Amino acid sequence: MPPSSTQNISLPSELLRLIDEDVASGRYRSASEALRAALRSFYRERMTPEAPHTFRVNLAMTRSEQEVEALFAQAAAGMAQVDLTGRFVRVNNQYCAILGRHSDELLQLRMQDCTHRDDLPHNMVLFRRALETGEAFEIEKRYLRPDGSVVWVRNAVSPILDSSGKPDSILAVSIDITGYRNAQQELRESEALKGSILDAALDCIVSINHESNIIEWNTAAERTFGYSREAALGRDLAELIIPPEFRERHRQGMVHYLATGKGPVLNRRIELEAVRADGSRFPVELAISPISSGDSPRFTAYLRDITLNKQVEAAQRETEQRLRSTYEHAFTSIAEVDASGRFLRVNEQLSIITGYSREELLGRTFIEITHPDDRGADLDQFRRQMAGELDAYALEKRYVRKDGSTVWIELSASRVDDGSGKPLYGIRVARDITERKRAEEHQRLLINELNHRVKNTLTTVQSIVFQTLRNAPTPEDAQTALSSRLIALSKAHDVLTRESWEAASLHQIVLEAMEPFRAQGESRIRVAGPEVRLPPSMALAVAMALQELATNAVKYGSLSNETGKVELRWSLDKTNSLAHLHLRWEESGGPPVRPPSRRGFGTRLIERSLAGDLQGEAKIEFALTGVVCTITAPVPDPIGAAV
C-alpha cells in the first residue's frame, strides 16, 4: 500500500490566472470545477491517437506534463480513472489510501470489485447513464477493503470525452466520509433511541425553546394532559398547562434566565399544580433542565402526575395520626425495645403506670423496673423471642414504681422483623391489673374467710344448740332460747355482710343486738361510745355476748320489771402501741340480784368463749344492784384507728 502522505503542489501562475478568469466570467462556478474540466481535457487530449505529441487544454492548465502528473498523484482527494468497463487505469495515492490497496493491485481490478454489493446496482445505473449521456454524477457509496472493513466515500464522477464528444473513460474524485456517515448513523440511532425513550417513558417529557414554545411532547404527556402531540407542538407552554395565576411568573423566569443564565427552579425537583385539557387541576412533580443549543437555549421538563402519591400520603398521614393518637392515648402502655431490652419509645401510659417520666424510661431496660422475683421468666422468654424462637408471648408480672411501690401488669410481647426476617425491635403492650389482683386476692381471702366463718358458725350453732337443749327446763324454753341466740348470730352476720366481712361498726352491732329488746322501753337501754370497727371474729363474739346479757336482763334482771335500766358504754384506750377496747354492761333498778348456784351456758359463753375469741378478758359480776359485765380486748390496727 502506498504511503498516505501528501505534498503541496504549486500551480503555475499562468494556470492560476486562467482559472480565475474562467470563474470570473461565469463559465465555471468554482476553481475546483475549472480544475476538473482541465483534467478531463488533459486526459482526452492525451488519449487521442491523432495528437500524442500535443498537450493542449482549453484552460492552458500547465506547461509541464510532469506538473499535472504530480498534481493528480498528490491531490488531497482520492482520484481514479476507469475505462468503459470500470477497470482502473489510473489511481492516485489518496485513492489507494481510501481503499486500503496498492496501486498495482487496484490496476488489476474493476470499480465493481471494490464496491459494496448493496450499493453496486445503483452505482452501475448511474455509471451506464454517464456513459450514454456524458453527464457527471455524484454518489455516496461503500468500498470494501481487503481486511473486510467498509469505507464510505462521496464520489464526484465525470466522463472524459474523446474528440468526437463520446466518453472514453471515467474520472472519479473520492472523499472519505466514513466518519460523517458513522456520525449520521449514530445520530439516527440516537434519535430513534430518544423516540423510543420518549414514547416508553412513564413521565411526561416536554421540551420548549427560548420562547416557551413546545418542541417535544411525548406519549405520557398526551395521556396526562389530554393534548395530542400535534395539538401541543408549537403552543406556548404557559398557556397550555400552567394555571393562569402562575403564567406570568413562568414568563418572568424565562426572561431572567435568558438575561443571566440562572433560574431558581432549574435542575431541582419541585411540586406544583398543572392544568389538563379539560380544565381540571392536579399536582405534578417537575424537574427542568436547560439544554445549550447555540445562541438559543432549550429546556426539557420532566413532569409526573403525583395525584395518587398525594392521596397515599394523605392517607398515610391520617393513618399515622390515628396510630399516634391511639399510641399516646391508649389505656394500655406501649413500648418499643431493642434487642437488649432497652426502651426506644414509650407512651404516656407507661409513665403513668411506672411513675417514671419518658426521659427517665428511655435508656433504661424493662428488666431494671421489673420486680426481682419476676425478672427470670420475662427475660428468658424475651431472649428466645429476639433469637427468633418465639414470635410472641404473654405473662403477668410486677413493675417496681419509681416510689418503690409495686404494680401488677398483664404483658403481651411481640417482635418486628426486617425484610430478611432479622429481628429489629420488640413491642411490649401492658395494662395495669393491680386492682384486679387486689380483687382476686380479696376474693381469695373472702372465700377462705367464708370457709373459716362457716365452720366457726356451724361450731357456734352446734354449741348453742347443745348447751341450750341441755340447760333448758322445757322444750318450749329451749326453743325460745335457741331462736333468740340464732337470731342474734344472724344479725351479726348481716352487719358483717354489709361490710363485706372486712370489719363491722361496734355501734351497729350494739343496735342490732338490742333491737329485739327495745320494746321494754327506748329510754331504758342507754348506749354510748366512740366509733370502733371490729374484725369479723370480734363482731360475732360481742353480738353473741350482748344477746345473752340482754336475754338474762329481760328474764331475771333490770329489764324484767317496769323501772330497771341497762347502761352500755365502751371506750378505746390507745395509750399503748396496741389499742384496747373496754366495754361495760351495767344493769340497775331491777329486782335484787342473787348469785346463781351454778354457772349457766350464757355465763360460760361470755367468760370463756368470748374471752377466747377476743383474745382478751370477760368478767360477769352479780352485784346486788344488778349484773355488771366488763370486756377488755385488743383491737387490731388500723381497724381500731377510726375513733
TrEMBL record:
<keyword id="KW-0597">Phosphoprotein</keyword>
<keyword id="KW-0418">Kinase</keyword>
<dbReference type="Pfam" id="PF08447">
    <property type="entry name" value="PAS_3"/>
</dbReference>
<feature type="domain" description="PAS">
    <location>
        <begin position="319"/>
        <end position="389"/>
    </location>
</feature>
<dbReference type="InterPro" id="IPR011102">
    <property type="entry name" value="Sig_transdc_His_kinase_HWE"/>
</dbReference>
<dbReference type="InterPro" id="IPR000700">
    <property type="entry name" value="PAS-assoc_C"/>
</dbReference>
<keyword id="KW-0600">Photoreceptor protein</keyword>
<dbReference type="GO" id="GO:0006355">
    <property type="term" value="P:regulation of DNA-templated transcription"/>
</dbReference>
<keyword id="KW-0843">Virulence</keyword>
<dbReference type="InterPro" id="IPR013655">
    <property type="entry name" value="PAS_fold_3"/>
</dbReference>
<feature type="domain" description="PAC">
    <location>
        <begin position="393"/>
        <end position="445"/>
    </location>
</feature>
<dbReference type="InterPro" id="IPR036890">
    <property type="entry name" value="HATPase_C_sf"/>
</dbReference>
<feature type="domain" description="PAC">
    <location>
        <begin position="137"/>
        <end position="189"/>
    </location>
</feature>
<dbReference type="GO" id="GO:0005524">
    <property type="term" value="F:ATP binding"/>
</dbReference>
<keyword id="KW-0675">Receptor</keyword>
<dbReference type="GO" id="GO:0004673">
    <property type="term" value="F:protein histidine kinase activity"/>
</dbReference>
<dbReference type="Pfam" id="PF01402">
    <property type="entry name" value="RHH_1"/>
</dbReference>
<keyword id="KW-0547">Nucleotide-binding</keyword>
<dbReference type="InterPro" id="IPR002145">
    <property type="entry name" value="CopG"/>
</dbReference>
<dbReference type="InterPro" id="IPR035965">
    <property type="entry name" value="PAS-like_dom_sf"/>
</dbReference>
<keyword id="KW-0716">Sensory transduction</keyword>
<dbReference type="InterPro" id="IPR000014">
    <property type="entry name" value="PAS"/>
</dbReference>
<feature type="domain" description="PAC">
    <location>
        <begin position="268"/>
        <end position="318"/>
    </location>
</feature>
<feature type="domain" description="PAS">
    <location>
        <begin position="190"/>
        <end position="261"/>
    </location>
</feature>
<dbReference type="Pfam" id="PF07536">
    <property type="entry name" value="HWE_HK"/>
</dbReference>
<keyword id="KW-0808">Transferase</keyword>
<dbReference type="InterPro" id="IPR013321">
    <property type="entry name" value="Arc_rbn_hlx_hlx"/>
</dbReference>
<feature type="domain" description="PAS">
    <location>
        <begin position="64"/>
        <end position="134"/>
    </location>
</feature>
<dbReference type="InterPro" id="IPR001610">
    <property type="entry name" value="PAC"/>
</dbReference>
<protein>
    <recommendedName>
        <fullName>Blue-light-activated histidine kinase</fullName>
        <ecNumber>2.7.13.3</ecNumber>
    </recommendedName>
</protein>
<dbReference type="InterPro" id="IPR010985">
    <property type="entry name" value="Ribbon_hlx_hlx"/>
</dbReference>
<keyword id="KW-0677">Repeat</keyword>
<dbReference type="GO" id="GO:0009881">
    <property type="term" value="F:photoreceptor activity"/>
</dbReference>
<keyword id="KW-0288">FMN</keyword>
<keyword id="KW-0285">Flavoprotein</keyword>
<keyword id="KW-0157">Chromophore</keyword>
<keyword id="KW-0067">ATP-binding</keyword>
<dbReference type="Pfam" id="PF13426">
    <property type="entry name" value="PAS_9"/>
</dbReference>
